[in-house]
Design brief:
CATH topology of chain B: Lipoxygenase-1
Distance between the termini of chain A: 40 Å
CATH architecture of chain B: Sandwich
CATH architecture of the largest domain in chain A: 2-Layer Sandwich
CATH class of chain B: Mainly Beta
Oligomer: heterodimer
CATH class of the largest domain in chain A: Alpha Beta
Number of helices of chain A: 7
Helix content of chain B: under 10%
Number of domains of chain B: 1
Number of strands of chain B: 11
CATH topology of the largest domain in chain A: Ribosomal Protein S8, Chain: A, domain 1
Shape of chain B: globular
Radius of gyration of chain A: 23 Å
CATH superfamily of the largest domain in chain A: Scaffold protein Nfu/NifU, N-terminal domain
Shape of chain A: globular
Strand content of chain B: over 45%
Number of helices of chain B: 0
Largest interface: A-B, 40 and 30 residues
Largest sheet of chain B: 6 strands, antiparallel
Chain lengths: ~280, ~110
């Protein structure tokens, strides 16, 4: 379950993230001529500097206001939240939809015989992809769509409620039985990262790490030049998602667990060696 | 990222007292709070206001220079340019001479009942 979901329905848990060490000052002493003891020309002399002590940034749990808290009731409660870039909308349901596995479907023809809930959602005009995992349904819109999320939300909520009142499964047992084991998914995803993604983003000093696999859901972090980068969302959506799904079509949810605000200077990180 | 004009923290201290004059840092620059009321004594509430007038890539409440500061709760109110103020409620946390508290939270995304 992604951390933001916990914040909305259960409140976040406190965590401590090690702070990156402060970068060394870039002050350079002007010298007449480099000597053997002096650093190479253009390199700062750091011999007199004391390494700053790395500090820890602590995160306190965020407490929900009362109106955000969801009480269990007979009526299924669904909350919708449009993601920051307006590309997707997450529908959070107050009871589990699909535990242990996830399913991502790129169109109505893929949903047939796999997920009756997804079929109902694709029947709503404008819905492009459906991801079902845990307590959430995440939708994106088709490129041709002209409707806003506000116009679509109510229909999605109604479809989820109607499905949960029926006896139909969220995802067919045949689909779940055919999913490869975690070890196989881990191996195949690792290979994509190693062979395709990391070589591709190496020129930006970026690196993607597979943190864990849970069922057919994967959790990654983006490091180096990708951490805190303003283009990381596009890299994730257009590069990483596409490569993963092409090579491992059974994959469900792909979560980026990177704290893009961490570090002393996340949006203006140090230049790679040799460019300073 | 919005420009943060001012922010106010209402910090309720738990068992262990905090520093008399806590500081905050914005984008790694330590600063004093502009206004301060109350204290960080055990059980007391300290209300402080900062006026960074800047874009907070990081905004931290700096931990005590020695000892441990038990914080029971923090109510943080942010006044950003061209937006209405908003408040975030934080729960219990402890700071020591090696830790700072993250106090920057963007306005929570609105979730609609549908």
């Amino acid at each position: 379950m992604p951390s933001w979901f916990k914040k909305v329905f259960t409140g976040g848990a406190g965590k401590a993230v090690p702070e990156q060490e402060e970068p060394l000052s870039s002050d350079v002493s002007i010298v007449d001529a480099p000597s053997q003891e002096s650093p190479a020309l253009g390199q700062p002399d750091t011999s007199d500097y004391e390494q700053p002590k790395a500090r820890e940034v602590v995160y306190a749990p965020v407490i929900m206001s009362e109106d955000e808290q969801s009480a269990y009731s007979e009526e299924v409660r669904v909350k919708a939240r449009v993601e920051g870039d307006y590309q997707s909308c997450v529908f959070m349901v107050d009871r589990p939809l699909l535990k242990g596995s996830s399913v991502w479907l790129p169109g109505t023809e893929w949903a047939k015989d796999v997920s009756p809930l997804a079929e109902a959602l694709f029947a709503i005009e404008g819905v492009g992809t459906v991801l079902i995992h845990d307590f959430t349904v995440t939708l994106t819109l088709t490129q041709e769509n002209r409707r806003s999320w506000e116009e679509i939300m109510k229909g999605v909520g109604a479809a989820i409620r109607a499905h949960l009142k029926s006896d139909d499964p969220v995802v067919s047992q045949e689909f779940l039985d055919a999913l490869p084991p975690e070890d196989e998914i881990r191996s195949r995803v690792s290979k994509v990262i190693e062979m395709e993604i990391n070589p591709g983003i190496a020129s930006h000093s970026g690196v993607v790490t597979l943190e864990r696999v849970d069922g057919n859901s994967v959790y990654i972090t983006m490091g180096g030049g990708c951490q805190g980068c303003a283009a990381s969302a596009i890299t994730l959506r257009q590069g990483i998602h596409t490569a993963f799904r092409k090579s491992v079509p059974e994959l469900g949810a792909i979560y980026d667990e990177t704290d893009h605000t961490a570090g002393t200077n996340p949006y203006f990180s140090e230049l790679p060696a040799g460019m300073a | 990222m919005p420009r943060l004009n001012t922010f106010t923290l209402e910090i309720k201290t738990g068992e262990n007292a905090g520093p008399e004059r806590p500081q905050y840092s914005i984008n790694s620059f330590p600063l004093d709070f502009d206004e301060s009321q109350g204290s960080a004594a055990p059980g007391a509430v300290l209300k402080v206001t900062g006026t960074p007038q800047s874009f907070p890539h990081t905004l931290l409440l700096i931990g005590p220079s020695e000892g441990c500061w038990d914080i029971e709760s923090v109510h943080a109110t942010y006044d950003c340019a061209d937006e209405d103020p908003y408040t975030i409620h934080l729960g219990a946390v402890s700071l020591d001479d090696n830790s700072d508290l993250n106090i920057w939270y963007e306005r929570p995304a609105t979730a609609f009942d549908v």
